[in-house]
Write a structure and sequence with these properties.
Elements: H1 2-14, H2 19-36, E1 40-44, E2 52-55, H3 60-69, E3 73-77, H4 86-92, E4 96-98, H5 105-118, E5 123-125, H6 143-150, E6 155-163, H7 174-177, H8 186-194, E7 200-205, H9 219-238
Parallel strand pairs: 1-7, 2-5, 2-6, 3-4, 3-5
Antiparallel strand pairs: 6-7
Helix pairs in contact: 2-3, 5-6
Amino acid sequence: MGMFAAAGTELAVKRPKTREARADWLHRFAARAVRRMGIEIDVAGAFPERGAVISNHLGYLDIVTFAALHPCVFVAKAEMESWPVVGLMTTMSGTVYVARGHGGSAVRARKGMQSALNAGLPVVFFPEGTTSDGSSVLKFHSGLLAQAMACGAPVTAAYVKYSLGAGNGADVSVARDMCYWGRAKMVPHVFRFLGLRGVRVDVRFAEQPIEFSGDMLHRKLAAVEARAAVLELAEQGVGAEVRG
């Protein structure tokens, strides 16, 4: 936890001004955290240099993983902004917040995404809108996807899967102790996670952006096609057991 405190202090003191500087800070912090915690990340494909990246969502480790791989900007639920310590760090690192169900939220999200894209930074978001235990890919919501399409951004699919090595207790599972979902409490979950051994994250990126059959006016269809693209990656060896 000292690593997080030190990183938070650095961020508060330096207060990077540009999106590029903030994304670079988060990238360096996440890469350092991954190394120190002994997390193995195996990557198939390349992190897109531009546009939007969409993925299934298993928990906070997804954010650390994507940030460790490449400087980027995340789109996250507005509630995260008020979290102790984490809220400050995500805000200062340039996260675009979305308050679902609030008037004007989509427009603000589009402006934030466009600003990041104009700065040459990939934008990462999770169309499921929540996290899961990894046994399935949930239905995709179309709101943020439509905003990314409205920005003219190419959208590339990604898929993440967690696994654990030997040496963990018989009562330890990926679904409970790595995936952060349901009614799990943040602090107890983080402490359990820090005690795990052999943590591995497999990430697969699509070779090309998604070719949507319509434009943002056909947002529901786009959401179905985006989910299909993520499921296709799951079937390519990273997680063939995942259900549709």
